[in-house]
Amino acid sequence: MKQSNIPDKLESLIKSELDQSVNNLDAATVSKLNQARQKAIDNASRNRYQQWLIPAGSFAVAALVLAMQTSHFFTPASPINPQSEVLGDLEILASSQDLDFYENLEFYAWLDEELQQAG
User: Fold this and answer.
1) Does residue 117 sit in the same domain as residue 61?
2) Which string of DSSP letters, residue by residue, matches 9-65?
3) Tell me: the pLDDT tens digits for 99-115?
4) What is the pTM of this model?
5) What domain range includes position 87?
6) What share of the chain is helix, strand, coil (3-state, %, to 5)?
């Protein structure tokens, strides 16, 4: 029983010495300690916010990338009609028009538009 009382006595002695040293602190030191404590509390709350913000943001980015990748699988592919391009080229080659006509095609389209507006 004596051995169990020794740690209790030592603990109470240390506690009373620490309490007495705290009570003997001057006002400036107490103020600095309170400011440091408040700063630590603010930083701790800010760190808690960052602890869940980074994983949540990473999850959101991963979900967005996944959604973008899977959307390609569910959208119907537009039908590719290579014949329409080939037929357009064949029409140009088979036409009786000069190639100069096709070089000035934009001019003719503009001229046609102006004539339609005027008349």
Assistant:
1) no
2) HHHHHHHHHHHHHHHT--HHHHHHHHHHHHHHHHHHHHHHHHHHHHHHHHHHHHHHH
3) 777 778 888 889 889 99
4) 0.31
5) 78-119
6) 85, 0, 15
